[in-house]
Amino acid sequence: MADASSGNNNAAGSTSNAEVQIQIPAGPAKAEGSAAPSQKSGTKNWRWWLMVSVDAFFLVAGQTSATLLGRYYYHQGGSSKWVSAFVQTAGFPILYLALFCFPSKSPSSGAGRGDAPVAKIGVIYVVLGLIIAADDMMYASGLKYLPVSTYSLVCASQLAFNVVFSYVLNSQKLTGLIMNSVVLLTLSDALLGVNHEETEDVNGFSRGKYLMGFLLTLGASGTYSLILSLMQLTFENVIKKHTYSAVLNMQIYTALVATVATVFGLFASGEWRSLRGEMDAFESGQFSYFMTLVWTAVSWQVASVGVVGLVFEVSSLFSNVISTVALPVIPLFAVLIFHDKMDGIKIVSMLLALWGFVSYLMQHFIDDRKARKAAASGDS
C-alpha cells in the first residue's frame, strides 16, 4: 500500500525477465498526476486506464460488500468485535495467488544491491501489523455502534487524514483544491457528529454508544491514513525496491501479524467462549454465520487487491480517494437492506463528501495535465 507515483512510465512496457518495477521519484513534492501514462503510445494509455478501472472496481466492490456483510453479521445477532476485526485480514492467503502472478525474479541490473536487512524489515512488518490490528478493532467497534450509512460517511475523513500525514511524512504537495477537499470532508463528518435524530436507538445502543462508535470510526480512519503514509515511508527509505511483489509482501506479512494479534485478543478477552452460542443464536442459521464470515474475509481481500493495483498504477493517496467513491454506494444499499434512515443531514453530508472527492479529483487532473505537458516539452 505504499505510494507508487509515476509507476507506469517504464514499467508498463517492460518485456524483460526482470520483475516489473514501480518508479517512485525522489523529489520532495510529488504530484499525484505524475503517475499518468506516457502519451507516446495510445495502446499503452488505453491499457493503463483499463487496469486502473478494474482495480477501482475491485476496491469499491470489495469495500462495499465487506462493509454490508460486516453490518449483516451484527444485524443477525453477531456481537464479537474481535471476530469482526479478525475477518478484515484473515483472508490474506488469497493474496498469494496474486503473488504467484508477479513472482520475485533473480536480482538483475544491480536490483539487489540496496536490499534492506531482513531483521529490520521484520520489525517494520510487526509494528505495522499491530497498528493494523488496532485499526481493525476500531473499525469493527464503529460498525457495531453506527448505522452503515453513518459509518461509511465518517470513513470519508480518511482522505483528509491521508493528506495531512502525506504532507508531514511524505512531503506531499498541498494545493487549494486539496485543502478545499479536506475542509469539505471535515464539515461532512461534523454534520454527522451533531446529528442526534438517530442516536436514541441504533440497534438498541444508547447515545453514548453512538458517540463512541463515531469517535472510534474517526480514529480508525486517521490510523488507516497513518498506515498508508508509514508504508510509503518504508518503501522509500528502507525497502528501496518498489516492485509489485514487494507491495504484496508488505500486505501479506502485515496482515499475518494483524491476524495473529486479533486471534490473541479474541482469546485474551474471553470472547471465544461465546462463539458457539453466537453461532447457534445467529438468526439466519449456522451455515449463514460461517458463510458471512468467509465472504466478509474474501471481500476485504478483493478490496485489498484493488488497493494494491491502484498503488502499482497510481499511488496510495489516489487509492484512498477511490475508496471514497463507495460513499454514495454504501448508504444507498444500507437504506435498502437495513432500512437506515436517509434524512436531510445525511444527504447534505453525502453531498459535501462528494464535493470534497470531486475537488481532490480535479487537482489530480490538473497535475496530470501539467505532467503531460512537461513530458511533451521534454520529448521535443
From TrEMBL:
Keywords: Membrane, Transmembrane, Transmembrane helix, Transport. InterPro entries: PUP_plant. GO terms for cellular component: membrane. Pfam families: PUNUT. The keyword Oxidoreductase does not apply. It is a multi-pass membrane protein. It comes from the Eukaryota. GO terms for molecular function: purine nucleobase transmembrane transporter activity; purine nucleoside transmembrane transporter activity; transmembrane transporter activity. The keyword Glycoprotein does not apply. The chain crosses the membrane at residues 48-70, 82-102, 148-169, 176-194, 214-235, 247-267, 287-310, 317-338, 344-362. It is found in: Membrane. Belongs to the purine permeases (TC 2.A.7.14) family. This is Probable purine permease. It comes from Brachypodium distachyon. The lineage of its organism: Eukaryota, Viridiplantae, Streptophyta, Embryophyta, Tracheophyta. The gene is LOC100831804.
